[in-house]
Amino acid sequence: MHLRLMTLCCLLAMWSMPARAQTETSTATDHATSAPANSPNNTQPRARDLGVPFDGTPGPLNAITDVAGVEVGYKTLISGEGRLVVGEGPVRTGVTAILPRGKQGTKSVFAGYFAGNGNGDMTGTHWIEESGLLETPILITNTGSVGVVRDAAVAWMVQQKRPGDFWYPVSAETADVPLNDIKGQHVTTQDAWDALSSATGGPLLEGNVGGGTGMICNGFKGGTGTSSRRLSAADGGYTVGLLVQCNYGGSEQLRVAGIAVAREMNLQRPCVEKLLDPPVLYWWSGKPAPVCDPKVATTADGVRASEEGSIIVIVATDAPLTPDQLKRLARRVSVGLGRVGAIEGDESGDIFLAFSTANAGADEGNSAQPPFNSPNATIQRMQSWKMDAMFTAVVQATEESVINTIIAAKTMVGADYWTIPALPHDQLREILRKHGMLKP
User: Taking residues 164-186, what's their average pLDDT?
Assistant: First the structure.
């Protein structure tokens, strides 16, 4: 059956009697922020705060920044409301920057990447595949802004006087339709620089921030999420941290603690905050979208095909892994996504990159500087038989990062007044409690 028809069938099955929705909404007040990614006043709930159970032991921050030296910065762009006018808005987008060795670090890292499904974009991967080296920051934005963000990274590295005559920056994307005027390409060079310059360690904001501002994840408001795992001393005591930009899937496939939670929720059909003239139409029926009832929980299923999205996942570790091992690590992201119900569908760009902060200075690639007379590098490499603990950590942290994303994200009203709902926390907790899975 065609994907869009399958989506419609799922929607018809879910439009049952409604229940109370979350009321906290991300407003359309114009703003552009590049504050540090961590906030001492951050009161965002996380999945564990709601009692969602997970396997494994997280690091102290439960974030990618648990890997020493890794820094993250955001630039969030929110402006305008009403009917979509290409080039004018509304704007619901941004940039996320990840610096493997922080703003002050200039050494390359070993890296590997893998695409679960390639209907997406991540620049710079040819050189990673060829050399096993990542020499630049990683930036994540929307599909229409990959190019400007990539070029901005080059200019930023020039400003920072980074070694090397040229680089291949990593710039990745997911498509923030229908909330954002994606064809308007509102992300600027300065926005990317702001994200890079604001990068810091510590706890991270999640949900509607940075490149994840306008994203949809598993039928609810998505965006940016993170998690980490600390290996036992017997397994080396290493840390694995992840950051995701989640923008894929429908609510029917979502699994939390192994439960298809949305199938047990009372949800209304996709809706708009206000009616326009002419009205916004459902793409599958041609009928006008209704105005949202603010007292009713909603699903975003149907504002686009359920797999018409993507997820970018960045894996960081301090374990001494070589590029071939890091590619193996990146592949295990798919297993973690399977635990939350992902199928890596045809219309989804599921692209994953893993890097290791170990073995600093082993190989600088195109960034190497004269004199070129240094001896061969001596590196550490984890034995293959130790890798299972690393694979487990990636799977566990992937699952939790996705759930953290949709727990943190708030309802957002975007272009054409489309309203993308937050996951209803009250219903989620009640379903987990019913199944005996809610942690006290």
Answer: 97
The model carries a pTM of 0.92
Q: Is the domain covering 51-70+103-136+215-362+380-434 a CATH 3.60.70.12 domain?
A: yes
**pLDDT tens digits for range 232-242:** 999 999 999 99
Report, as residue numbers or ranges, the catalytic residues: 310, 348, 350
**Short-list 140, 116, 173, CA closest to 338:** 116
Nearest to 205, CA basis, from 94, 301, 100, 121: 94
Mean pLDDT of the chain, nearest integer: 91
Residues in a beta bridge with 111: 355
Domain ranges of the chain: 51-70+103-136+215-362+380-434
- Sorted by sequence, the CB contacts under 8 Å of residue 133 that are 6+ apart come out as 108, 109, 110, 111, 127, 323, 363, 364, 365
Pair of tokens at residue 299: 């699903």
The DSSP output letter for 96 is E
∠ CA(314), CA(57), CA(198), 5° rounding? 40
